[in-house]
Design a protein that fits this description.
- 13% of the residues lie in helices and 58% in strands.
- By secondary structure, it is mostly beta strands.
- A hairpin with a 5-residue loop joins strand 5 and strand 6.
- About 5% of the residues have low confidence.
């Protein structure tokens, strides 16, 4: 008489052993925390694409990324092994921290959030640098500031403290930037040209002008976000 329970047990054992082997053959990988919960998982999607997931030690999702492996040439040029197509970052409370999606030509739409779930800022990045129009918000949802960033590969600016020029790559504030108090009243306007703040005006909450000026030369304030040397 056939012992079906033994055959079933054997079949289950084979499946348990085979699944990790198949996943490994496909390139899928999983690592675990000492407590046995997932720490990191990579799922192969095909055509050079994969989904990369990181977890908090609690087991909740921390990061979900969809990325594409770059050629050695592009990897060297961009200083990155992957082209990130989209990603989602989370706070430990489960709320979204950052959501991004590639829109082509190296540009990515980005929305960042406060831990309470409200949007903190939104705009675009290119090759990891802020570019184009950005809007920043208070936790209340009121607009804090708005303006444009411009990407630069190499830029020299005069450091007033160190008294010499530095050369950096990154993003710079460009054109008109406006800011508001949390009650919605205008706080200030600054105009950036060539990476320097050339004109500005600021108001108190009662509407009175408290600062106004213009600047020429390399000793003006800068609106630079430094990323790499």
């Amino acid at each position: 008489m056939i012992n079906w329970s033994r055959k079933l047990f054997s079949l289950i054992t084979i499946v348990i052993i085979a699944i990790p082997i198949l996943l490994k053959a496909q390139g899928d990988t999983v690592t675990y925390y000492p407590n046995g919960k997932k720490q990191e998982q990579v799922i192969v999607l095909g055509k050079g694409k994969e989904r990369h997931i990181l977890f908090f030690e609690s087991g909740d999702t921390s990061i979900v990324e969809e990325r594409k492996k770059l050629s050695a040439r592009k990897s060297k040029k961009l200083r990155n092994n992957y082209q990130y197509l989209q990603w989602r970052y989370y706070y430990e409370n489960g709320n979204k921290k950052e959501v991004a999606c590639s829109i082509g030509s190296g540009k990515v739409n980005v929305i960042r959030y406060y831990e309470i779930g409200k949007i903190s800022e939104k705009g675009q990045i290119k090759n990891g640098y802020e570019c184009g129009k950005w809007i920043l918000y208070y936790e209340s949802g009121q607009k804090l500031s708005e303006g444009e960033y411009k990407f630069f590969k190499r830029f020299k600016y005069y450091d007033n403290n160190m008294q010499y020029e530095k050369e950096y790559s990154g993003s710079m504030m460009n054109g008109k930037w406006e800011s508001w108090y949390e009650n919605g009243q205008k706080k200030g306007i600054s105009v950036f040209r060539g990476g320097y703040k050339r004109e500005w005006i600021a108001w108190a909450q009662d509407g009175k002008v408290i600062d106004e000026g213009k600047c020429k030369g390399k000793k003006c304030s800068t609106g630079i976000i430094i990323k790499t040397f």
